[in-house]
Amino acid sequence: MNMKDGYAVRLQNVTKKIGNKTIIDNLSLDILPGEVFGFLGPNGAGKTTTIRMMVGLMAVTQGDILIHNKSIARNFKEAISDVGAIVENPELYGFMSGYRNLEHFANMVKGIGKDCIMETSRQVGLENRIHDKVKTYSLGMRQRLGLAQAILHKPSVLILDEPSNGLDPAGIREMREYLRGLAKNENTAVIVSSHLLAEMEMMCDRIGVIKDGKLIDVKEKSEFIHQDEGESWYAFKTDKLEKAEAQLRETFPNLEISLAGGVIKVKAVADTVAGINAWLVKNGYLVYTITQEVKTLEDRFLEVTGGRK
Amino acid sequence: MIKLIKNEMIKMFARKSTWVMIAFVIVLTSFSSIVMYKMSPEKPENSRVFYEQQIESSKQALETPFLPDYQKDELKKSIKINEYILENNLPMEPSLWEQVQDNSSLIVLIAIFISSAAATIVASEFSQGTIKLLLIRPLSRSKVLLSKYLAVMSLGLIMIVVLFIVSVVVSGLLFGFDGAAKPYLYIGSEGNVVEVDMVYKTMESYGLKSVAILMYPTLAFMLAVVFRTNALAQGLTIVSIILGPQVANALTDYSWTKYLLFAHTDPSLTLSGNPFGVSFAFSILILGIYFVLMNSISWYTFRKRDIMGQ
Ligand SMILES: Nc1ncnc2c1ncn2[C@@H]1O[C@H](COP(=O)(O)OP(=O)(O)OP(=O)(O)O)[C@@H](O)[C@H]1O
Ligand SMILES: [Mg+2]
Question: Domain A232-295 - what CATH class?
């Protein structure tokens, strides 16, 4: 199923309006075969809506979506045959066994046999429970079965909305490795969505940040992988706070400096912090403590998605 | 397509309710035949007396004050038919085919069941959320919907066949398979009694009453596509099945009632004098228009709909 050159998925100025509310606003994006792309954004950002449009469940109001150059709107059958997907929760038929569920979806495409169904259930680690009714499955098992129905026909574009939802840590890791392997070995374009930053950083080659229906940023792997070695906030506890702060501002005009909560906050790299300390001491200030404000993942998520401001 | 219909059949028969409905048809059909058997005169010699008594009691009922006109008509017709039987020495024992023909009135029950199945087959995909997985396959939405429609109609056919076979077998066991074929009698348009071959009449009844199995589930199907909730689609359809024809009958004075779907869902009425005074062809035309209209709405809506969260 390896695809010729070119883009796996192209979103061209995609806009979705419901009533007069714009839910997705002029979103353009190209995704390559063999890459793992992540949509990151807070609740209600428009991740699921974008995915629904990519798989043709919702019509675009303006713009176009191409899967291997085939429009999902105008050429649905051809375009969708390259796609496997989970949209929101993997809801399957609870009253049937996992196997029957897979058989059901296999019946809807050409050429998927029994052995293929069994192999897929092995791949997702469900072979022991595949003949049990789905209503007896745990959330994580349903997620696995959801993945199984998505990869059953070996699609070249795999779209998963919050795939780690409900999986245990080992399961998340397994899923991550499986998806990375798929991208690497089968040249599959894997598109995931999540609001878990750490998860996305470990899994994705690129992350598109969505907020209020707009794609506000696309981060390359190099931009997020070494984040922790960059600048961060340091808090200096000194005497004569106001005076110290004013003088620091003059001396270091390029740094972000502020006074808050009885400390001077400076955004800098570690070397600069040592320099500031030396300067303060040299100018007769007493430096009691210097603490680095370790950013929590939550802070970074809010920072990346522009949630705090 | 065959595979898709098979999929829908598997899902339908994975539901307990489908089996309960089939069991219900079997039990009710048997029950109806047994009740008829118990009510008929035990010895053939008593048959004449039985019919005379019937005529007598009908005549007495006619004396009841304030009897509505249509009930009077019914009684007069039944008297006429019973007198005709006695005058012409027709076979009087209830026969296998008479009972099978009688059981065709249970088709209304099947219409209710199939309507419920029609609403469920569409609405359940929405309520379970499985519609999302169903519609991201390389198949047009029209085809997916058609497979559901055909699966439901096949269930309808299965139920009619079950009803027919159970009727024949149970009635045959009770009344004997070789009973003399009594003709079917009704009052023709000139007020005379008309004889029709009972087996022919049975086939005709099953055929025409099956119109209800075509129309009502189509209505339920449409409502389920439009509203996506089972309760609403089923509720409205069942109310229509039960009240529709009654409302239409009650309003026969108004000329527009003849354009109502409910005035035509039993075209066998048209053949034996329709209260709306329309021809059989007119009935079929109206039914055809409703059929096309309802299905157009279903398909148009289903093809265009954005599939969103619940
Ligand atoms: N049927 C609808 N009518 C109007 N607005 C809707 C409808 N469905 C979704 N929305 C709006 O579209 C926006 C995007 O929703 P979407 O489900 O795509 O968000 P999401 O990024 O997937 O969020 P989450 O992280 O919670 O899954 C939300 O503001 C939501 O309120
Ligand atoms: Mg979502």
Answer: alpha beta
